[in-house]
Amino acid sequence: MQLAEIRVARFAGQGVILLAKMIARAILGVKGHHAIMTQDFGRDIGGLCNTQVVVSDQPVCYYHVNNPDVLVAMSQEAYDMFFPELRPGGVLIIEQDLIRVTGTPEGIRVYGIPAMRLAEEISNRTVLNVVMLGFFGAVAGVLKRESLLKSVENSVPSASLDLNLKAFDHGYDYGLRHLLPGALESTGIQLV
């Protein structure tokens, strides 16, 4: 397997780092796979925050994401800044109530979810990132559901575990209901 790159971006303080950590932990739980996660913060408090996860079947020595295979954009600013870097044939996952997608090149697969509304339906906005993780798991097709659930269990406080598992299921089920037939073609990342 070649290197695979995932970028997650949104405003700081809204769970972007935890979302990327849960993806990286799920990958590390797959035998024979390596992952490294880095994070960048904008200049301003509450500004743009983006995280990168680099995946390989070899130890990862170069951790900078150049052309992500998957971009999870959760704000218009994140989409505007990082969409041009998405590799041809990549997967774009968006918070559909906050992002207007324009000029999508052929071959890019776009999946949208009203993650904020779904988080509010089950609790409040604090579980938005876990709703998005569930959706990522359903539409990206790169990790088994069980690997992602184990990552949630190992990443959130036990007092909020039930709420977070419910949020994951909400996002995952939404993704499965809205996939088009044949949508889970290869994304360039081959994990189990």
Describe the structure using short key phrases.
Pyruvate-ferredoxin Oxidoreductase, domain 3, 20% strand, six-stranded mixed sheet, 192 residues, alpha/beta, 6 helices
Q: What is the CATH first-level class name?
A: Alpha Beta
Counted by DSSP, the helix tally is 6
Task: Give, in order, the helices and strands.
Answer: EHEEEHEEHHHH
CATH architecture: 3-Layer(aba) Sandwich
Q: Could you give a short account of the major beta sheet?
A: 6 strands, mixed
**Assembly status:** single chain
**Helical content band:** 25-40%
What is the CATH topology assignment?
A: Pyruvate-ferredoxin Oxidoreductase, domain 3
The global form is: globular
On the 0-100 scale, what is the average pLDDT? 85
Number of E strands: 6
First-last Cα distance: 13 Å
Rg result: 15 Å
Runs with pLDDT <50, length 5+? 181-192
Number of domains: 1
Which band does the percent of strand residues land in? 15-25%
Describe the structure.
This protein is an alpha/beta fold and 192 residues long. It has a single domain, classed as Pyruvate-ferredoxin Oxidoreductase, domain 3 (3-Layer(aba) Sandwich), CATH 3.40.920. Helix content is 35%, strand content 20%. The chain contains 6 helices and 6 strands; from the N terminus they run βαβββαββαααα. It has a 6-stranded mixed beta sheet with strand order 2-3-1-4-5-6, with helices on both faces. Helix 3 packs across helix 4, helix 3 packs across helix 6 and helix 4 runs parallel beside helix 6. The two termini are 13 Å apart.
